[in-house]
Amino acid sequence: MEEGTLKSPSNCGDTGPEQDFDINNWDVREGCEVRQILDRVADKWSLLAIAHLERRTLRFSELRRLIDGISQRMLTVTLRQLERDGLVRRTVYPVVPPRVEYELTPMGATLHTTIRSLVDWTEGHQQEIARARAEYDSRQGEADAPVA
Amino acid sequence: MEEGTLKSPSNCGDTGPEQDFDINNWDVREGCEVRQILDRVADKWSLLAIAHLERRTLRFSELRRLIDGISQRMLTVTLRQLERDGLVRRTVYPVVPPRVEYELTPMGATLHTTIRSLVDWTEGHQQEIARARAEYDSRQGEADAPVA
DNA sequence: CGGTATCCGTTCTGATACTG
DNA sequence: CAGTATCAGAACGGATACCG
Questions:
Q1: Which domains does chain B have, with CATH numbers?
Q2: Could you tell me which Pfam families the record lists for this protein (chains A, B) (predicted)?
């Protein structure tokens, strides 16, 4: 293994719910995992894998076909991370052609709402962002050389 | 500039709100920006910058001190991206010691709820994930050589 | 003060090849 | 089928130096 398999969770003391947005708490330097978990959850492949698994249990190759932009390597890595985080359960059936199934754990399933709100926001503001982007780029295009 | 300054927004046709979770829609290959926007929003530095700006308008150097793990380069890059996406407004005061202020745009402010739910989920499941991680790691430790 | 430009090591990722 | 191992290229991110 070579991927980001950062061990030693280093449980940080719960800071309590009353302080809204203790920003420094998200930071990696604090030894907390908020940031780290966020990265996993917001990760491109993780998000897609979870989304598909939200529908039903899937085999490795099924996921591969469904996500399809993904390489075998990244699918394996992603699935392993999700399994390690307890978001996905991996079941191996010791049959002649190996059969491995992946499904969301209860905790994994609770991500639905959260992810949904993120995607909703993004979809809802897609146009507005595109407009902002176009405007910004054209402002830059005045000073800088237009590519085409 | 060298950073991910992917131009040409390529506005993709709105697929409509009735279909819940059209997964392929998030994918980068579709030419849509959902994935891309998500990356921005979930980005470590973006998240921190937005969180601080949620409190009040800040100057460049103030942000730098507040985030503090960040390099000048990354702060600039992050702020520029957020500005381009229309999430942050940059105001330059042409005074002798240059003064530049950053503040959230109305759209940027709407991120609050979304980000909050993400962070809430993460904080709420931090312990459970840590436990899952520890368990997974120990399971691996049996088969693989314990480091220490 | 608030950047920009450059260099450069680290990380991420995809392609490829091999295995139980 | 479902991986693992290896390698190379691309992207990321920090340190540094210089500018309006």
A1: 33-141 (1.10.10.10)
A2: HxlR (PF01638)
